[in-house]
Amino acid sequence: MIPVFDGHNDAITRQGEPDLSRRRRDGHLDLPRMREGGMRGGIFAIFSPSPGAASEPVIFTERGVHAVPLAPPLSHEAAAAHAEAAAERLLDMEREGELVVARTIADVDAAYDGSSPPVAVLHLEGAEAIDPGLDSLGEWHARGLRSLGPVWSRANAFAHGVQFAFPSSPDIGPGLTERGAALVAACAELGILVDLSHMNEAGFWDVAHAEPGPLIASHSGVHSLCAASRNLTDAQLDAIGSSGGLVGIVFATAFLRRDFADDAETPIALIAEHARYVAERIGIAHVALGSDFDGATIPAELGDATGMPKLVQALREVGFGDEELAAICWHNWRRVLADWWR
Ligand SMILES: [Zn+2]
């Protein structure tokens, strides 16, 4: 089985306080199912919901023009309390020896070799838990934070997230704030990867021009194949390629399908089609995986983390060979993490 590193899941903040050490009947990811699917590592996002919202909102789509208003803002205090508790749950699992929270690239390599338990990269999906003065960023780094999206699809002190809209260009709002530019610079300094998946286009280019490190969209699709505001245009793909970065191809059906439908009856082959498109446009070194397990509707055919070998087979069927599959499934993520963390 090919070892898989997956660029994005919402398992630790999915519903209340999930126990990932036991196999659950619902959702997509826990440690037993990771093992069964060959997933030896992944980026574990902490997502703090807006007041009144239980989780990341599901996108209910109708065919045609559709836009979900930006979620209401979340206070720094509320986000910090929620995110610290979620991080503590992940660190508890590490203390119990069930996983390793990645602090260095050696931790990632040990999980690949199988000489350690699976590796979890601690990620903030939206940086509300960091104070605008960035005083807590160092504490978060010490806690194990190694990846961060300045913004989720709602405005905060750092940036304006990309609204979910279809069909729509990603160019639908202002970019980084002054604090956001400071946050990106501080992340580059500390070695915390900056994730662009929920940025609008203006924010994307603000980060690109600052050149903090390889450009990463951890869980996104191709705009030419699905014209959702969350997806990447060809110009954005080109910038990712020339920066040495990557796209974690998302499994969320709405961002894969030409009709933006949130529909589990979507073939796995569509994930492979997005991967093929990115490989043909900017090269195999810039294609990776970013499931959005426990954060979105994914193809029923794939099911959950145990379905990774089915996805590998679908990638094989669009022409990727063994070496390319190893790059998509692990080594491309390994390269960019090493670049950001050095
Ligand atoms: Zn997301």
Account of the protein in words:
The chain has about 350 residues and is of the alpha/beta class. It is built from 10 helices and 11 strands. It has helices at about 30-35, 75-95, 105-115, 135-145, 180-190, 200-210, 235-240, 270-280, 310-315, 320-340, and strands at about 5-10, 40-45, 65-70, 100, 120-125, 145-150, 165, 195, 215-220, 245-250, 285-290. Helix 3 packs antiparallel against helix 10 (about 320-340) and helix 8 (about 270-280) packs across helix 9. The longest helix has 20 residues, at about 75-95. It is globular, with a radius of gyration of 18 Å. Mean pLDDT is about 95; it is low at about 55-65. The structure holds zinc ion. Zinc ion binds near residues 125 and 197.
First CA to last CA: what distance? 29 Å
Strand content: 5-15%
Average the pLDDT over all residues and give the rounded result: 94
Number of strands: 11
Which class best fits the helix and strand makeup? alpha/beta
Main sheet: strands, sense, barrel? 6 strands, parallel
Poorly predicted runs are 54-64
**Rg, alpha carbons:** 18 Å
Secondary structure: helix percent: 25-40%
Bound molecules: zinc ion
Principal-axes shape call: globular
| H/E topology pattern | EHEEHEHEHEEHEHEHEHEHH
Q: What does the oligomeric state look like here?
A: single chain
How many helices? The count is 10
